[in-house]
Amino acid sequence: MTLAAAQSRFDALERRHLNGTFAELCRIESPSGAERRCAERVMAELRALELEVWEDDAGARAGSDCGNLLVRLPGEQTAGGEREDRSGAEETPAGKRPCVLLCAHLDTVPLLAPVEPVLVEGAWENANEGVLGADNKAAVSVLLALARRVCREGAPVDVELLFTVCEETALAGARAFDAARLRSDFGYVFDHASPIGELVLESPSHFRIEADFRGAAAHAGIRPQDGRSAILAAARAIATLELGRLDEQTTVNVGTIAGGTAMNVVPERCSVLAEVRSLRDERAEAVVAQVVARMQEAANLPECECDVDVAVQRTFAGYHLAAGRPAVRAAEAALRACGHEPLAIASGGASDANALIAQGIDVVNVANGTERNHEPGERVSVAALEGMLDVALALLDAAADASPDPAR
What we know:
alpha+beta; Alpha-Beta Plaits; 25% strand
């Protein structure tokens, strides 16, 4: 029986374990940079399955108290029913078993309120006014459930599980991960908050823009004419920007502005942090140039007369995946096997797929059925959580039949 067919044999214990693990993970606070406790819980689960977990040294570079976690699950079983231990075996090109990567991230956006998962009309929500953490702990719990299933029943492919840190801070963990350690032919992340069935085949390039305005401090009630307000210069700059959705492929946002020292002091310093995203690199670069120019023009206005330093960083690259690639074909087959009609989409968001693709690994971001990520009303239905596991298991079947890309 294939793993996809075995989904119908989910018993009450397996369902309870999946949902219980999800709720437990959500209760563990793990905002970007503080993933250690969540990682320890994940490692404990995997080690209980007698799996070796490798942690890399990306934590310091990514700004986290923890590194990325990688574990390998040899899929085959011996004649006696036990898995053959090939976790350290060297692969040879001839007769090589397929290997598939499944990836989820351990961090969440800032919580704003403690997480207390509750079931409301068949869906998990946070009882408090804050995010639930389903982004991406729904996927983490699914991968742990998949590991339990593979360790018990085997799989038609070898599996690599990658748990990353600091995804929510510009994919810092995945960007610091050395993808040369992977053996997988291709892989999947489960990190798009939309209905199961959607496949993200286009994702944007991202630019980080930080402007530091410098004016002159003065007493705001006695000598305001001697001061030069950095906040005023920043405000003038922001007021000239076109923010939000510029077109179907491009967005601009000012995320933070900070400056000043006291109410009665003309502010000497002010910093602005903005981003530009676009599915087209040339469009993104043109918009970035426009944002930088507006910052500089505002600083030079007669009523401002400030200095400004603008730093631009290309944080991650976008991608366009061809529909015929093996990873895409396998995903489509898996979704159909689970009763979902595949739908290729473009997203304005990014995921660890961006960072892994940039390192030469074919990765598809698969919608995970969660809702309202990054919002206090974030939720995921029990049906979507269990459906995500169905799809993950079916991916292993489909990957066994997919041909590696000869161009890779």
